[in-house]
Design goal:
This protein has 175 residues and is mainly β. The protein has a single domain, classed as Jelly Rolls. Helix content is 14%, strand content 38%. The chain contains one helix and 13 strands. The strands form four sheets. A five-stranded antiparallel sheet has the order 4-1-13-7-10, with helices on one face. Strands 3-11-8-9 form a four-stranded antiparallel sheet, with no helix packed on it. It has a two-stranded antiparallel ribbon with strand order 2-12. The N terminus is likely disordered.
Length: 175
């Protein structure tokens, strides 16, 4: 399904239902990563979230999402001060993220993007209120890092939600 550009606010149609279903389908994957982190505490994965206050997201500018709590996995792999996942073991990683903007008007769109080493590598589908993205990232150097950026089309800055089930980052090495 082709995605609409962020500049096209157009009419809301049935494809938004598919995007919401996609976002909701990521939750079991995030839950499984959380479970794995408790089963294998020394494995190379992490689940992070945001609590406390929401992060302000400016208008139409891609902004790095700062997840401020590592819920599970190896906390040394995720720097909460800069929102950066830096795996120690080379290989392929499944990266998942979901972020809500609970107060954004229904006429606006939200999009998450995965960056590797400061370069966009995966763009999630645009959706309403909440955005999700998932992708496989090849880590080929000990200095490689992954970050999540968010962009929205509303006319004013928006704050992210802080409900743990709706603002998550997960990175897991594929065996």
């Amino acid at each position: 399904m082709p995605t609409k550009p962020l500049s096209n606010l157009g009419n809301i149609g049935p494809e938004e239902n598919l995007l919401i279903e996609f976002r909701d389908s990521l939750q079991p994957l995030l839950d499984r990563l959380y479970d794995l982190s408790h089963e294998e505490p020394n494995s190379n994965h992490v689940v992070a979230t945001r609590t406390g206050t929401g992060q302000s997201m400016p208008i139409t500018v891609a902004t790095k999402v700062l997840f401020n709590i590592v819920e599970s996995g190896d906390a040394t792999l995720f720097d909460t001060t800069v929102g950066r996942f830096t795996p120690e073991i080379l290989g392929t990683y499944q990266i998942l993220s979901t972020v809500d903007l609970p107060n954004i008007p229904s006429s606006s769109r939200v999009c998450l993007v995965i960056y590797k080493n400061g370069v966009e590598v995966w763009k999630g589908a645009e959706s309403l209120i909440s955005a999700s993205v998932a992708g496989l990232i090849e880590i080929t150097s000990a200095t490689d890092f992954v970050e999540i950026f968010l962009k929205h089309t509303d006319g004013s800055a928006q704050d992210t939600g802080v409900e743990r089930s709706r603002i998550k980052f997960a990175g897991y090495k594929i065996p």
